[in-house]
Amino acid sequence: MVKSATIPTHVGIIMDGNGRWAKKRLLPRVMGHREGVKTVKKITEFAAKIGIRYLSLFAFSTENWLRPQDEVSTLMDLLDEYIESEVELILSQGIKFVVSGDLGRIRESTRKKLNNLIEISRNNSGMVLNLALNYGGRDELIHAVKLIIDDYSKGLLSKDDIEKKFSLYLYNAEIPDIDLLIRTSGEIRISNFMLWRIAYSELYFTKVLWPDFNEDNFRDAIADYNKRIRRFGKTDEQIIGK
């Protein structure tokens, strides 16, 4: 299916269901998160293989700090392990690693590892892997507005430029809008994820819990994406030429 299908340029995934995966198996939540990290590796490699150019993964939101402190600490430990284990894949596949979000609240040791991975993959020309970390869609927009106000006050931006250039003030401005947004676990909401970039995204919700999400599930999402007519405000007749 994938070979003949139109592959979306940018796929975003809200990775949900780690805790429920563990609860169903009477396991600690940390086991669900650990399995979820394995899925991240598998899906990243698959996405690069089939030709997706940008993959954005919602790893940790600004609201996730409200979770129990021991779970947050465990998630940060797993992030450390993930970074260390991903170096080989990222370098061998030519993946460019970037992060969207405010890293200021991330502990210093982890932040250094993230920045190192960003730096060593900076010139890679393969798929861009964008990890949304301490990220919130509203926070990103507020951050962008503050930068715009600063540039406007310096005379570097006119009022007429704001809408046209707004996306240049987002995290990793070179990343295009999301074509296909996938959310696992059966929840049907976007949870403050990349609000600007999902304006015209095709949304795909699956009941599969993130640790169970596999290549076949990803193929199903792309197959469903290929059934959609992306109108961007136009009519069917304008799009398909009838």
Average pLDDT level: 93
Q: In angstroms, what is the radius of gyration?
A: 19 Å
Strand order of the largest sheet: 3-4-2-1-5-6
User: SSE order in H/E notation?
Assistant: EHHEHEHEHHEEHH
Quantity of strands, as a count: 6
User: By CATH's scheme, which homologous superfamily applies?
Assistant: Decaprenyl diphosphate synthase-like
The geometry reads as globular
* End-to-end CA span: 27 Å
Return the domain count: 1
Q: Given the helix and strand composition, which structural class is it?
A: alpha/beta
The fraction of residues in strands falls at 5-15%
Q: What share of residues is helical?
A: 40-55%
CATH topology: Undecaprenyl pyrophosphate synthetase
Low-pLDDT windows of residues:
none
How many helices in DSSP terms? 8
What does this protein structure show overall?
The structure is a single chain. The chain is an alpha/beta fold and 242 residues long. It has a single domain (10-136, 177-231), classed as Undecaprenyl pyrophosphate synthetase (3-Layer(aba) Sandwich), CATH 3.40.1180.10. It is built from eight helices and six strands. Strands 3-4-2-1-5-6 form a six-stranded parallel beta sheet, sandwiched between helices. α1 (18-24) packs across α2 (29-50) and α2 (29-50) runs parallel beside α3. It is globular, with a radius of gyration of 19 Å. The model has no long low-confidence stretch (mean pLDDT 93).
